[in-house]
Amino acid sequence: MVRFLHTADWQIGMTRRFLTAEAQARFSAARVDVVHRIGRLARQQDCAFVIVCGDVFEHDQLTPQTVRRTLEALRTVEVPVYLLPGNHDHLGPMSVWSTPLMAEELLDHVHVLDRPGVHAVAPGVELVAVPWHGKHPQSDLVAPVLAGMDVPPAGTVRVLAAHGPTDLLDADGRHRAAIPVAPLREALSAGRLHYVALGDRHSRTEVGDPAIWYAGAPEPTAWREERPGDVLVVEVDTPPAAEGRTQVRVTPHRVATWSFLTLDRRVDSESDLDALDSELGALPDKDRTVVRLGLRGTLGLAQHARLEELLGRHEDLLGALDRPARHNDVVLAGDDDIVDLGLGGFLATAVEDIRAMAGGVPGDRSTPAAGTTEEFELEGRPGGRDGGAVRGVAFTPGEPDDAASAQDALTLLYRLARGGSR
Fold first, then answer.
1. Is the pLDDT of residue 54 over 80?
2. Which residues contact residue 76 at a Cβ distance below 8 angstroms, ignoring those fewer than 6 apart?
């Protein structure tokens, strides 16, 4: 039996636009720290090696510090580590793998699978590597490697390491290089392969066969990921001399320290605000929890001011509190709160004008106006720039003079007049 650890999509060097500079620094450190935990798990599970199936790094424009810290983390892994270039860190003249720093400081027990085909990595163990040599291949990279591949010598375990989407999970067929699953299953049934280790999908996923797996990202990167944060310990029984299947056992192990959480709540009363406050307050590991919050409902001005205050308080504790405008529809109702402030003079006149404007339909902020501080990031498939969104704020200078900005102005005025802060 051969036991090894399958992981992928470390995405070291990743940045997220919804994180503050302080949170980004901790998020970046976590992506290196998880390598230490993977190494300890490999030792505890008596794994023969670790295979990282692509996207070790987020991109090629990395600082020397990032690369050196990654190599230092890999130094603590006590078994051989095999790194497969993926779409984010593909091979090429400008690749991170081609830098003098990598050539000079790469560790003896860390190997880059930069040549497609079979690699004999230990007695009785072969890795079949399918590295990326460009960011946008136009055809399946696995098929040429599998073509003409015979059954390995008796007693040899053969593992395919590849990166990219599969046809079973590419329903719209938009990826020209999608990996067909049927030929992989045929190779497994014929004994030409014994396990298929995949990277690119950040959610741990079995793909049409008990011996074909995405390990997922060991630290999550976005809300849309369903089962991130794991690595897989894989056991493959020594295959029989004859052709055919061998027994494979796959066990996930949790290694993540960060989490992404989506909350969609209705707020219409003080009790709703109490419940939201308690729910956010009860979250564990707040500094490593990124919350995407969608709110809808109708609140008075005082309640709206309280909502902004409590969200600001929790935002200070969380890794991030993301409030996409397209997921927020909280309407102000009633005039009593602003009347109770007893404002006079020109301020009272201005308040009347703002109240008249705020009585309209809340504006659509799905697209920011020039001069706003809202931040955007395109959403895409796992392994791409997924999970980005608008970072909501209570009041944004530069917004159009519409009902939504008028409501924000009233809320801010109320909080300031009551002695609160923005």
1. yes
2. 35, 36, 39
Q: Rounded to two decimals, what is the model's pTM?
A: 0.80
370 burial type by CB count under 10 A (0-12 exposed, 13-18 middle, 19+ buried)? exposed
The C-alpha atoms of residue 223 and residue 229 are separated, in whole angstroms, by 12
Compute CA distances 220 → 151, 255, 288, 322, 387, whole Å.
37, 10, 11, 16, 10
Q: Please, what are the domains in the chain?
A: 2-254 (3.60.21.10), 259-417 (no CATH)
Q: DSSP string covering 174-210, please?
A: --TTPBPHHHHHHHHHTTS-SEEEEES-SS-EE-SST
* CA–CA separation, 68 and 275 (whole Å): 46
- DSSP character string of 260-309: EEEEEEE--SHHHHHHHHHHHHT-SSGGGEEEEEEEEEEE-HHHHHHHHH
Q: Which residues of 157-185 are buried (b: 16+ CB within 10 A; e: fewer)?
A: bbbbbbbbbbbbbbeeeebebbbebeebb
| Lowest-confidence pick of 168-172, 181-185, 360-364, 407-411 | 360-364
Tell me what the mean pLDDT of segment 352-358 comes to.
67
The 8-class DSSP code of residue 362 comes to P
**The token pair that represents 78 in the structure block:** 């006590």
Element (H, E) at 405: helix 403-417
Single-letter residue type at 350:
A
- Residue 363 — φ and ψ, nearest 5°? -70, 160
- Of residues 391 and 108, the one with the higher pLDDT is 108
∠ CA 148-151-152, nearest 5°, is 115
pLDDT at 376: 27
Percent of the chain with pLDDT over 70: 77
Instruction: Please name the residues in contact with 180: beta carbons below 8 A apart, sequence gap of 6 or more.
Output: 140, 142, 143, 166, 167
- Residue 7 — φ and ψ, nearest 5°? -145, 175
Give 298-312 pLDDT, tens digit per residue: 888 888 889 999 999
**SS3 (DSSP) at 72:** helix
> At 360, is the pLDDT very low, low, confident or very high (cuts 50, 70, 90)?
very low
Burial of 306 (0-12, 13-18, 19+ CB in 10 A): buried
Query: How many angstroms separate the CA atoms of 167 and 178, rounded?
Result: 5
Indicate if the pLDDT at residue 368 is higher than 50.
no
